[in-house]
Amino acid sequence: MTDDFVTKFEEFYEGGIEQVNFGKAVEVVEQINNFIAEVTRNKINNIVTEDDFTEDDFNEISRIVLINAIYFKGRWDEEFSSYETKDACFYMAPGKTKKAKMMQRLILQREYSETDEFQFLTLDYLNCDLSMRIILPRKRYGLADVITNLTINELMKHLTKKEYVEVIVKMPKFEVKTQFDAIETLKGMGIKDLFDTNSNLEGMSNFKEILISSILHSAYICTDEKGTEAAAITVKDLIGYGRCPPHPPPKEFTADHPFMYLITDSQNNIYFCGVVSGAEFEDGINGSVHQKMEEKISKNSVISFAKKIFGKRP
């Protein structure tokens, strides 16, 4: 790496650069896995193995491996009560359900908007600039259509809309852990030259023959009554309390079917994006048979959404 690139990388991106000998696979694997585990508070471990760094892959051209890891743990500004969490069905697809731990509570003065196709809810985190945004289709199995039809302009309209209402929220506790090499995803978005001998990375290194061989991405999301823990790398009897007659009834937001979530800051920068499809829940009906299929659907939905946000090159 050139000194100029290293300086700018550390200054503007707060990143780190390590020069390693990929021929010593055991040492490289240990170094990468220790780094990921440290950044993610041991939520993500053993992301790579020795098989990812064989001598044949690295003996002809200098290569770069990019590693992305981020950790976030946030508490809701209005927590759910664990006493109100109940077992409920989560409707994954026609004829396929799973048992989920459904959290519920009435939340006062919450950012909320809606269309004929979906509901859009904001749940804020305590003492920080971040929020979870949930896109919930009105049709039980309509998430794919919502993602396909949602335009960037419409998304920004909902992200910036400041209408506050009372909302009865029912949503599942969920935990998602995923890790993959992002190169194929980026190629599908039109970014290709970085990963072959056509790459022009002379600004990074004095070696002319250099390319990016892997982009290791891992993510961990855990959402429960208290809030969200993330790494990359009561409703009962509430309706009857005293209220002035003209006050509108609370909105009902029941996330018992697949939905998309974003974690954003106040400037609407997106830090995490994912889909809860039902494959995340342990117990259920027809769960194990369809889990891999649902995970694939979830990943494809997120990739489709990412292409829409960042655009696809010709």
From TrEMBL:
Specify the superkingdom.
Eukaryota
Q: Name one GO cellular component term.
A: extracellular space
Serpin domain: residues covered: 2-279
Q: Which Pfam families match?
A: Serpin
State a single Gene Ontology molecular function: serine-type endopeptidase inhibitor activity
- SUPFAM superfamilies attached to this UniProt entry: Serpins
| Classification via Gene3D superfamilies | Alpha-1-antitrypsin, domain 1, Antithrombin, subunit I, domain 2
Report the family membership.
Answer: Belongs to the serpin family.
- Name of this protein: Serpin domain-containing protein
Which species? Panagrolaimus davidi
